[in-house]
Amino acid sequence: MRLITPVWAQQIEVERQAETLLVTGWGRIPDPIDAREIEPVQISRLDIFQRFHRYVLRHLGETQKSDAGVYQFADAHDDEKLIAFVKEFGPVWGEVRSTKYEENGTFTLTVAQSMRRLRNEQREFAATAKLLQQVNRNSQADSAIMTDVMIDIHLPAYRRIMIDNFLSTDGPIEKKTGSVLPWAHRALCMVLNNYPPKLVPFNGDVIELPDTGDEGIRNAIYYQLRRDYLAQRTIGTCLNCGGHFSVYKRGTRGCSESCRRALRNQRYWSKHKKSVNRSRRKKRTDRK
After folding, report:
1. What is the pLDDT, as a whole number, of residue 88?
2. Residues 125, 209: one domain?
3. In whole angstroms, what is the distance from residue 96 CA to residue 19 CA?
4. Is residue 224 a contact partner of residue 248, using CB atoms and an 8 Å limit?
5. Which has the higher per-residue pLDDT, 2 or 283?
6. Are residues 139 and 169 in the same domain?
């Protein structure tokens, strides 16, 4: 790791005013950071992708290592979780109200994040993540799910007409996985191409990083989807909480250590509940 993509701001405060979130960030570093210029212990605090993997949105207020990453945003289905996400990571995409340069070289800024837009961004991102989950399953992809998701995803009008025409004329959905998959790839590429990365020169080399802005972290969360797509990485569904996560180790069934621990406890109980109950009954009998 040579350059890191910094968090939107090092300290974030959110004030809700009706259907608008006023998000104030202190210590914003707008440009990529040379990892060699900061202490290793500070990287996890300043690198937005490491921050994604430290915070588990589904268990509000809980900080631990998680494989959920940006998929926490896809699973933020209510306003409480959406606001918690913004409090932790900053606006997804809003209107910059003020920007102030500080003497320490960072910026202080305030962004107005519309709740309506935040909900729409979440729905669009969740649909894209769901499509990615199916596409990366290749021949095991569910054609009906892909079709439903492509209908929900917002696409440019001329592409929308092409896909709608295909979906309405190509025969029964359950029989056409092979023909749906190429269109699912097209739809996914069209969405990801709306949030292209940027090239950053570094020591005579060039590095590709997300193009984040003062307006919010939207490009960074789609960048993670882009990486998982290119790596053909499995997007799992946690068997404990139902959330989504990037599968880095085959066979992983939980999105975080707490969920994996819960699943281990469930397996132990299913296997040993008779002997455990027998032992408990014996103890109660002995006490009498």
Report:
1. 93
2. yes
3. 16
4. no
5. 2
6. yes
* Phi and psi angles of residue 64, each rounded to the nearest 5 degrees, phi first: -165, 170
List the domain range (segments joined by +) for residue 36.
3-255
* Residues 173 and 283 occupy one common structural domain: no
d(CA 61, CA 277): 34
Shared-domain flag, residues 71 and 168: yes
Q: Give dist(CA 218, CA 125) in Å, integer.
A: 9
| pLDDT one-digit tens code per residue, 159-213 | 556 566 666 655 544 445 568 888 899 899 999 999 999 999 988 889 999 988 9
Q: Are residues 198 and 285 in the same domain?
A: no
